[in-house]
Design goal:
Elements lengths: L16 H18 L10 H13 L23 H18 L4 E7 L4 E6 L1 H9 L10 H4 L3 H5 L6 E4 L11 E9 L6 E10 L7 H35 L6 E4 L5 E4 L1 H6 L26 H12 L7 E7 L3 E12 L2 E9 L5 E2 L15 E5 L2 E5 L4 E7 L2 E6 L2 E5 L4 H8 L4 E5 L2 E4 L5 E4 L5 E4 L8 E3 L4 H8 L2
Parallel strand pairs: 8-11
Antiparallel strand pairs: 1-2, 1-5, 3-4, 4-5, 6-7, 6-10, 8-9, 9-10, 12-13, 12-16, 14-15, 14-18, 15-16, 17-18, 19-20, 20-21
Helix pairs in contact: 3-7
GO molecular function: DNA binding; phosphorelay response regulator activity
Protein name: Transcriptional regulator, LytTR family
Organism: Saccharopolyspora flava
């Protein structure tokens, strides 16, 4: 992966007169817009569109000087772990490239939640004052116009300079970001961002970001083709037992394969790519069934919990009117990679919008950093967390790993609902992993989470009564 992306160099730069004039004009436009006026001049269209979203739709406070904490849940599943691992390695490499130039590299998930930052230590410390650090939310909805959040709203890289940021507390920063998108669904699953404080970014940064995103998306594309091969195989097996219209759909509701009856019903030519299996995402047909996307998402959320699941929905098909369609998941390595859709059948759970909110969320993940890579951990893998000032170390079944989240309080907030409890000002313990309890000569309490290794976690006197009660000792 690293070989696909050239080294990133940010040369020091001093804004010229034209740049200073432009920045001053944008600052005046921002001041007017933030107080309720509408502006049309001095602001780039993509930035102005973002300002409108921030002011009128998201109602972000323009006086904000720090990003808020991100929600404790995560919407990415284990199938994206490899993507975040590659992004972490890419972020670390770029961070080393820009360190001497005062740059900072950040990687987020698809919600704008920062997973890791790399680069110049002093600039990172300054960034942390604005909460530009792991576990904070940099979506437009949370923090206004910025390279990470705004990249989800536009195609390609976006640069946000000084007062183009919606929040006044970020006006000393220049940043550029790009979204990494799923080639099947088109949705953003991550972003990568370069920032500098009090200095402009080089013109080569957007090009580097575009190349970096393309490299990551090559892996996403490779996996999408693999998913399609599995879907075609499942379709061929099902086709022998099906007499009615049958299609195989990808995760975005597009047609990978279809039999002759389905091609005719959907008014697709007999030699359409779906007739032989559309492995390439760009070859897949989008059926004219408006509600199909929602139905596929609903079906995938149900099937993620039960691979044997099936359900049906009433779909409006132009040639036939409203008719039932039964969906069954296509899985690979316990992941839903597509759907078989048999028209005219009505089997399994009925689709209803009211039931969509009941879908069980994907398993949570805790982000760690080891050897310049992001490590995604299930909470059950973590025995305890130990704080060294604002740095948190996780003792896990995969060894000792640095937590991407800074501050034991933030880690505590995320893990409490998974059976973790604060036992000391420096320690957080997974009570489900406590194997032994030791008593000291003066009544001290120590928890043993792995009897095979000499590790004990002290319990402070203040926390001891609650821990005894929770453990039943």
């Amino acid at each position: 992966m690293a070989g696909l992306v050239p080294p990133l160099e940010i040369a020091p730069s001093t804004p010229g007169g034209d740049a200073l004039t432009s920045t001053s004009a944008v600052a005046k436009a921002w001041e007017a817009f933030a107080t309720g006026d509408d502006v049309t001049a001095s602001v780039r269209p993509e930035i102005l569109a973002s300002w409108y979203r921030c002011r009128d739709q998201y109602e972000v406070d323009p006086g904000l000087d720090a990003a808020p904490p991100a929600p404790g849940h995560h919407d990415h599943g284990p199938d994206n772990d490899v993507i975040f691992t590659q992004l972490g390695g890419l972020g670390a490499l770029a961070g080393r490239d820009v360190e001497l130039d005062g740059g900072v590299v950040a990687v987020t998930d698809g919600t704008g939640r920062i997973l890791g930052t790399w680069g110049d230590p002093s600039t990172r410390r300054r960034a942390e004052m604005s909460n530009m650090a792991p576990w904070s939310s940099w979506s437009e909805k949370a923090t206004g116009t910025n390279g990470m959040g705004t990249s989800f709203e536009v195609a390609g890289p976006v640069t946000v300079t000084g007062p183009e940021h919606w929040c006044e507390g970020l006006h000393q920063w220049d940043c550029a970001g790009i979204a990494i998108r799923d080639v099947v669904t088109g949705s953003a699953i991550a972003s990568i961002n370069i920032s500098r404080w009090g200095a402009t970014l080089s013109e080569q940064v957007p090009t580097w970001l575009r190349t970096a995103a393309a490299g990551i998306e090559q892996e996403i594309h490779r996996r999408a083709v693999g998913e399609a091969r599995r879907a075609v195989a499942a379709f061929k097996q099902e086709r022998t037992d099906s007499t009615g219209p049958l299609v195989a759909l990808d995760r975005g509701g597009k047609i990978i394969a279809a039999n002759a009856a389905a091609l005719a019903m959907l008014r697709l030519p007999g030699d359409a790519p779906a007739s032989r299996g559309a492995l390439e995402p760009g070859e897949r047909s989008c059926p004219e069934i408006p509600e199909l996307d929602d139905v596929v998402r609903w079906a995938a959320s149900r099937a993620a919990q039960n691979p044997q699941w099936s359900g049906y929905a009433q779909l409006g098909v132009a040639a036939e009117g409203t008719m039932p369609a039964t969906l069954r998941p296509i899985t690979e390595a316990n992941r839903v990679v597509g759907m078989l859709c048999a028209f005219g059948l009505q089997e399994g759970e009925p689709y209803g919008r009211a039931g969509e909110g009941a879908a069980v969320p994907m398993p949570p993940r805790v982000i760690g950093i080891r050897n310049d890579r992001l490590v995604l951990l299930a909470p059950s893998e973590i025995r305890y967390a130990e704080a060294d000032r604002n740095t948190v170390w996780l003792s896990t079944d995969r060894g000792r790993i640095l937590a991407a989240t800074r501050g034991l309080d933030h880690v505590d907030q995320a893990l409490t609902r998974h059976g973790f409890r604060r036992v000391h000002r420096r320690f957080l313990v997974n009570l489900r992993r406590v194997a032994e309890v030791e008593r000291g000569t003066k009544g001290e309490l120590f928890l043993v989470t792995d009897p095979r290794v000499p590790e004990t976690v002290p319990v402070s006197r203040r926390h001891a009564p609650e821990i005894r009660r929770l453990l039943g000792v």
